[in-house]
Protein: Heparanase-like protein 3
Amino acid sequence: MGGAPSQRLGRTSCARHWTGGRRTSATMAPAPGAAPACSTWISPTRSSSTPSEDKVVYGTADLGRPCAPFAKNASEMHGFTQGCLTLRRWDELNAFFQKSGARIVFGINALNGRVPLPDGSMGGPWDYTNAASLIRYTANKGYRIHGWELGNELSGTGVGARVGAEQYGADVIALKTLVDDIYASHPSKPLVLAPGGFFDQAWFAQLIVRTRPNLLDVITHHIYNLGPGRDTHLIDKILNPSVLDGMRSTFSSLQGLLKSAGTSTVAWVGEAGGAYNSGRHLVTDAFVFSFWFLDQLGMSAKYDTKSYCRQSLIGGNYGLLNTTTFQPNPDYYSALLWHRLMGTKVLATTFSGTNKIRAYAHCARDSPGITLLLINLSGNTTTQVSVSVTTQGAVAAHKHGARKHVGGRKFRHVHVPSFDEAAGGVRDEYHLTPKDGNLRSQIMLLNGRALATDTAGNIPALEAVKMDAAQPIAVAPYSIVFARISHFNAPACS
Structure:
């Protein structure tokens, strides 16, 4: 197909075993004392942006004092006293987890037993007595926990508190030993994850070396690369390719550390809300945020991230669900389409023609061929995209300029070699746009139809439009397109 920017797919995948749409997850921040799916603790009275996991104790027999809830105290770290999770509440939560079928990763208190050091960090070994009793109680009750994560945002310079990497590594090994011992007679055992904090290359390198080759299952990091939610320029950042590209170094550096260390540890994004302090209403809960979110999923997959936990399922202004109506926000549908369409093999992909198009490709999920994700950050240009496969990475295309479109918008054209198409073939396309063209809209359109649940709360059918596979993919201004091309022969998908 000539006359369009091209997307080039290498013959081999760059992250063959990434779990793709199977592990697009969300943290939970909904209610008093709620446990996280992927490491977030929210108390009933605090802002969802402030970590409290490391101030939680557990109401097991060893606690030795009443199991009291959080209370505000300005003189305490994070502005709260310790809070206690009762076993009754833990039982109720696990009943919910079982009914929902969710895989639960629970962040446990990593500050017990520590003392302040002169350099401002928290020192001394982790006192795991109380945590061990909770883990043992959980195992004895037969509750299924997918993973136990040690601490929250204590890496590097930390948030409110920090722990040195050498000591943290020793504590991870203690948790690993504890989990191995408690689950010794079980057919499977939970993962051990750490540190659930912001990436600091030197700190993370120490942790990886200390725990290699197999004492840490998952290394988790958090992402709030857009800054505070109060920033009035968030939309400008989301639409800026340079800002989005800023995360490449984190993903790349972490993978480099893991590969050079020769460890079995894999990387997850353990928490990502984009903008901290609960995000920003009509930005992080609106259509425009899907540009950031889907780009994050595509980029993290490219660098072999095995799971991506979005902050949050519900809570703050970055929830996938509206906190009042419980209706899905646009990113819910973006995540659902990713889950259904993007397979577990990530294809090496380059795009040439304009930096306003973000392009990612995977082998299609549960289908032959491939699925493309195309994100158009331009508000005035429709880009037409064709696809080809090469033997050696990307091949540059020749740009032929642009011509005006109705309403002052443009079409951008680049001549590229055509790729083989089945005669009369079709492809499935899913075009996502905001209602009334408003990037701040909380209503997403799929192929021109508004997405909303019915009166019974059922998710609408996410139906594709069938397009002539011999024609370029037209990516409208400020839109997102998933294109599933079933007949496309990418060797890595065979």
Remarks:
- The domain at 20-345 is CATH 3.20.20.80 (TIM Barrel).
- The mean pLDDT is 86.
- The radius of gyration is 23 Å.
- Residues 452 and 458 are 9 Å apart (CA to CA).
